[in-house]
Amino acid sequence: MPIPGTPQSLGFFFVLAAACLAPAPLLAVEQGPILRIAIVRTSKPVVVGGDTVVVSGKDFVDTQPGKGVFEFRVKGDSLLVQGEDSGQSQLRVSSAAGQLTINRKSWRGELELLVQGREMLIINSLPLEGYLKGVVGSEIPPNWPMESLKAQAVAARTFALRRRMEREGQPFHVEATVDDQVYGGAASEHERVSEAVDATRGEVIAHGRELASSFFTACCGGETESAREVWGQDLPYARGVPCKWCGDCARSSWNYRVPMAELERSLRKARLILGRLKELQPGGMTSSGRWADLEARTDRGVERIPLDKFRRAAGYSKVFSGRFTVHQEGAFVVFRGSGSGHGVGLCQAGARNMAVNGKSYRQILKHYYPGANLFQMY
Ligand SMILES: [Zn+2]
């Protein structure tokens, strides 16, 4: 049943169902639309294995009965299969069991191999629900309370569907990295995660007639951030809420000490500054207490760096959040901060403690996405 079953959400269902679900057998629809994930980019040979593997292209087909492996590599703009030129720049690989290995790591669904420049791009395509089983446990630990796993499953499902719509017609919908959601394939599946995904199957976060942008963050540090402050998107359900639940997260406080010369190299490489770095200071502050940008004093004057670009260049796993003080100690720059992640949307550490305190995944999602509603999409 649609939740909460308003006429608006019903209209929303039909619009989205038409956009996302091509006519397909009932079982396929129940597992959600096919999602395409970029999982490997390499210039090295890869070995794909499975049970009764079929390799096919526009003018090419090869198969191996029983358990077998194929080796692929890029030569010019063509793919070599077992050392022979296939004459194809794009190949599809499937198996009778619906599961394949790449260099012994296991993936559900099918693979598509594409030549891109001098590299091979491998795309994994599989129904959305299967993807979620390989993604939720990479985002949060599978031993966390069930209601927090369910909240993450719904947020992850919504995030993937948004990306799918935004990137329709492109070679793939999502990256398998922190740029979208960390996805480890069948090797990352866990029984408790699968239970959380199955228990919320097809459920998404909506705002009015649209899928919500269901951002999530590791630990907000006391108040979530507005999407407008980070990405310039004014979303009514992502304007930031107080969070009293994440005080004990792994990154509730952190330090990072880096040589000024090293920081300068990172910022110049990312083309965020042009001059020689002399001093780094915070710029403006957002209403939730994070820095909106930083001021780099260089021999070319003051160069302003938006926070998200700064964190990306310095390292998301070094400058963990936008809540910090910064000062110089001799040749070093020292950051002291709290929280982890961009701070927008669901606070994962907060969701964990809300679940510990008896809150349901619906209560968790309503807290972190105020004004949004849950909707049964399929
Ligand atoms: Zn929090």
State the gist of this model:
The protein is built from eleven helices and 22 strands. The protein has 378 residues and is α+β, with helices and mostly antiparallel strands.
Explained architecture:
The chain has 3 domains: 1-37 and 127-230 and 343-378, no CATH class; 44-117, no CATH class; 254-338, no CATH class. Strand 2 (46-57) and strand 3 (60-75) form a beta hairpin. The chain contains 11 helices and 22 strands. Helices cover 26% and strands 34% of the residues. The protein has helices at 7-20, 26-30, 128-133, 136-139, 146-166, 191-199, 227-231, 260-269, 307-314, 348-356, 361-368; strands at residues 34-42, 46-57, 60-75, 78-81, 84-85, 90-95, 99-102, 105-108, 110-116, 119-127, 174-175, 203-207, 210-211, 216-217, 254-259, 277-282, 293-298, 301-306, 323-329, 332-338, 346-347, 373-376. With 378 residues, the chain is α+β, with helices and mostly antiparallel strands. Strands 1, 2, 3, 4, 5, 6, 7, 8, 9, 10 and 11 form an 11-stranded mixed sheet that branches. Strands 13-12-22 form a 3-stranded antiparallel sheet, sandwiched between helices. The protein starts with 6 loop residues before the first helix and ends with a strand. The structure holds zinc ion (ZN). Residues 219-220, 243, 245-246, 347, 349-350 line the site of zinc ion.
